[in-house]
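[User] Could I get a sequence and structure tokens?

[Assistant]
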Amino acid sequence: MNVKLWVQGINPVEAESDCGWKEINLCELMKENSISSKIQLQFGQLYSFIAYEHKLHIFCVLTGDSRTATLDASITSIAANSKHCLVLLSTGQLFKYDCLAEKVVQVNFLGIEDDGVNKTPNKCSITHVACGECVSVACTSTNGVYNIPNCTVTLPRHVRIRKVAAGFEHCLLLTTNGDVYSWGGGLRGQLGNGEITALSDQPRIVEGLAGVKVIDIAAQGWHSAAVSSFGDLYTWGWNNKGQLGLPDPQHNERVVSLPHLVSFPGDDEVTVEKVHCGIGHTIVEVAAADGRKDALIAGWELATRFSYTDASSASSNFEGFRKLDKPVQERDASLELGTGAYQVYFLQRVRSE
């Protein structure tokens, strides 16, 4: 099976000025005859990473240079910033690709802070990873939360971690019972606790979401988002580009330090199913009452935002969420949505002729 990558915004694999929808053949890009298993994508500010089976493909956004690193086992998860990419293998081992050194090194940190009595390294494994510009996070099967290599906190035994996300300086953690924790830098309200604080080093429940069961979270740059089990969207942080999707002018270019419920345009009710964040944009996957699936975007106009020839393209968009036109209009087209730092993308699986 072939996989097409449709990208709007900065091309994540080669340097070019066109920011409209572009089609990239991943089989040709990765020199694979067919793609049958899951692909992991991370599109950062300077580097892009595509993981498939036991290979990590690295692309420099500025120069278009590329290289491939081969690991000893299949890759289950990746997380990246401008300096490195964390690579979690099916064996439970964690590696780091250093972009400047252009090499892969193993990351060993479990048990570093062990007191010699409670030896747990052999009993736990890494389950989740996330990267921001100032933080690299790993969570373990024994509820350890690490700002690598230091253990930040060990959550109570009854808590189960569902997802972890990171912006430039802050982190979010979602549990299976719907609680959201935040920690890290909070000078732009991205922690959601109503305070403007330089650093909160311990995870705290986001009180503004108390009583709300959350099923998905996302973070990038200096903003955060959460989806409730009722299909509502909450956003908070720095609304400098309109990425919070709050159309009230009082929020324009302001810090919003508490989660705000987002309203959507039009009379039709929509249910938010999933949220994705880029640096200056937020995208939600929604379902209408009649079952129709759509994608909505707030913030940057990605098709023109990074145009080198249009001086007006740098303007923000504070109109709230608007419909994102998909690159493929066929009703039966299977599209998997995601975001990068400066992109939105769709993966389309196509059966080979």
About this structure: The CA atoms of residues 192 and 258 lie 5 Å apart. Residues 26-30 form the longest helix (5 residues). The radius of gyration is 20 Å. Confidence is low (pLDDT under 50) at residues 115-121.
